[in-house]
Amino acid sequence: MNSLSKAPWKLNRLFISIFLIVVILLVTYQVFFIVNQYPDILNKPKEWWNHAYPPRLNRLGNDVVLKNVTSLKKIQYDFPYSSFRREFIETPEERELRESRRESIKQGFLHAWNGYVKYAWGADEILPISNLPRNSYNGWGASIVDALDTMWIMDLKEEFKNATEHISHINFNSSVIPISIFETTIRYLGGMLSAYELSGDEMLLEKAKQLGEAMIPCFNSPTGLPYNNWNLTRGLIDGTYKPYSTGILAQVGTLHLEYMKLAQLTGNSTFFYKVQNVTDVLDKAVKKIPGLYPTFISQETGRFLNYDVVSFGANADSFYEYLIKQYLFVGGAIDQYRRMYEESIDSMHEYLIKEGQVKNRPDLLFLGEIYHGFLPRMEHLSCFVPGMLAIGSKTLNRPKDLEVAIKLGETCYWAYNSTTTGIGPEDFYFLQKNVTVDEKTRWMQKNQKDTVLPDGIYKLNGNYLLRPETVESLFILYRVTGDKSYQEKGWKIWKAIEKWCKTESAYSGLYNVASNKEIVQNNNMESFFLAETLKYLYLLFSTPDVISLDDYVFNTEAHPLLRMKP
Ligand code: DMJ
């Protein structure tokens, strides 16, 4: 062969070599990309990877397949991430500060958890001063189930393992006394479903199914609205069992995410139909003001019982919260939820949001109630509203809702920042802009002898139950706006909790956060402190990809559940 005929062969070899080099470079790039995006892939068991990103099921049981599931609009702020390593961009100093704060929350969790393990293991709660166990939720170990996903998120896998071992022995088919269907659903059922999706532990799904099935007979009222309290043992064997109860909006209307998730994961549509019927009954029931649902309803007739009691606080709160979250959960495929949510929020703006009389703070907005006329009372419980509005604003393109969310969030934080402890009260009565203060109001103001009243407030209930709502909204507002001042606010609140609530074994609520005398602890630590307050604080100092609001929806007890995607 002469040198001329060898030339094409040499050229071919050159091309093949270049081709192979390009392929090798591309593969290497992909491997680096995946490992950097999900650094934990190398350290976790296979199950973690599989179940953290399970296949998306766009159905609510085998016979309810949702056709119009969409991605919906992005909720989270466009946080800066490096394009190659998919790393959250921040300076080394910023990272150090954020991580040290996150670690401080984790240590707080461990302090409370270890106290619970030592003094109250297996009971529902620890009494954090007397170091005794307490059972308020059927004695199944509410703190263990409620805290499960927090442990997973905080990477406390040993504690998680011990907790699942306990859960594997619980018999959810029997109850000692009638149990609260609402509390059992949001704490136990929500807790296990969320931890199942995060960890992939099939036992948790089995137990969730057992509990979900055991509670199904509670929907056997004439309208299908669930009874508030239910004896599981009797309910399962006695078809005529019917407890006396008056329906409470939040209790009948906050089971949906959990039962929808159960339907999705088990393929059993009954779980979905039961709660969808509840939505339909509430939707059809006559209201005085469109979108404002009175707090009490009859399970016998499906009619509201007192049209002049409306609130976004106790007994009503999470019903509204779930409307937008149900819509998110199904990727917009059921429009009824959006319509009901928007009607409610429009009326909330019109009837319940007011300006106050706080000196130098004209920006603050207050969320009142209706109690036979307008009642200028705002509860800690209703401080979930800023977070809800922020999520709804992004999802449904309602910019005014975000403006109001920011202002209400300011008010909730101000309520903390203006007490003697730096912790917010259970509720307070506010003076409204342009409303003259009458004698009765002045009298109430003077009568609050043990309390330092913040400006613009005339009555205050200073209890603090370690509730999460304000830090929940700070976390969501941070994720939605990218504004780091929410982290500063959350940190200040955490420092106050550390200072006033910490006990030898755990954390305790307080009697009067605005006291002008001694600050007294109340010997109570509800399981939502572990499930919600500490989780939201921890996530506030995590990178924004950890439990992104674009992938998950939180149940009202802060248990993240995966959203449906197309
Ligand atoms: C929690 O159990 C839930 O967040 C519920 O919706 C309201 N009350 C507590 C926390 O305050």
Automatic annotation (TrEMBL):
Cystine pairings recorded for this chain: C383-C412
Which UniProt keyword terms apply here?
Calcium, Disulfide bond, Glycosidase, Hydrolase, Membrane, Metal-binding, Transmembrane, Transmembrane helix
Q: Does the keyword Disulfide bond apply?
A: yes
Q: Pathway, according to UniProt? A: Protein modification; protein glycosylation
Does the UniProt entry include the keyword Hydrolase? yes
Question: Which cofactors are reported in the record for this sequence?
Answer: Ca(2+)
Task: Name the family.
Answer: Belongs to the glycosyl hydrolase 47 family.
Q: What is this protein called?
A: alpha-1,2-Mannosidase
Q: Please give the organism.
A: Rhizophagus irregularis
